[in-house]
Amino acid sequence: MQTYRLGKTGPEVSAIGLGCMGMSGMYGPADRAESIATIHAALDAGINLLDTGDFYGMGHNEMLIGEALKGRKLENAVISVKFGALRDPASAWGGIDARPAAVKNFLAYTLQRLGVDYIDIYRPARLDPNVPIEDTVGAIADMVQAGYVRHIGLSEVGADTIRRAATVAPIVDLQIEYSLISRGIEDRILPTTRELGISITAYGVLSRGLISGHWQKDQAASAGDFRTHSPRFQEGNVEQNLALVEKLREIAEAKSVSVAQIAIAWVAAKGKDIVPLIGARRRDRLSEALGSRAVDLSPDDFAAIERAVPKDAAAGGRYPEHMLQHMDSEK
Fold this sequence. Notes:
alpha/beta, TIM Barrel, 8-stranded parallel barrel, two-stranded antiparallel sheet, 35% helix, 17% strand, globular
């Protein structure tokens, strides 16, 4: 597995990371044993970057990863954790808390659930509108000095916030959605991270399965699945989006690869500073994603892909409108 350094001072991570969110109910029920087997298979294949959030399953995801890592060499895993999202007992969302005191509180519980002495990359899940980013990053920097965190990351923030954060402490990466149908970072955010030497860890590279080649028009999201609320999966939008997938399928079949492999390879080929996070929660999907590493895209392939799926061709936003209004990266 090829590796890249995150940012100027960050850890060496595999060219593909494993996003573990879907193993804790965000996309409906998941199989615990298969989830752990998938994490093991990823580590065995050379994937060392494991991404989670302390609010995924209200701590379930961290405990799952902690269980999967038992008996394994922890130095072979780079654990990235998002914090700050508030939830209630009914699983509803309650905003963001990134106050310095909250940073240290969330971190203490994360260390306990994962069963580790430090977190490799720690980041606020979103910008807290009530707390200057300098205060949040400063609190994480204190935890770096204390040895509880190794590196600082950001998530879903815009160019101005990135610049402000970088004046406080080194930022190794920005985690943000990036795919063939979610290309908003190309306008201001990606140029800013490249100017500052900050990497991108890209989630949603298959747009939550929409452009994986496996989603069907009449497929219904199960109860508790985020996609039941996603505009791109709604009737009237999903048909247009799946038509784009069929155009992509023609290119994939001509290269004897899958649609998912083309979509992942496109993101990976956009720069060595971009690491796709694959949200596989089954070993077969992980194996398919790993196959993207062998997909070589020529300039003609790039041109064909972008003709098939032009920028801004997707129908519907990547999140519901009320969520987009509160996302710093969308400003």
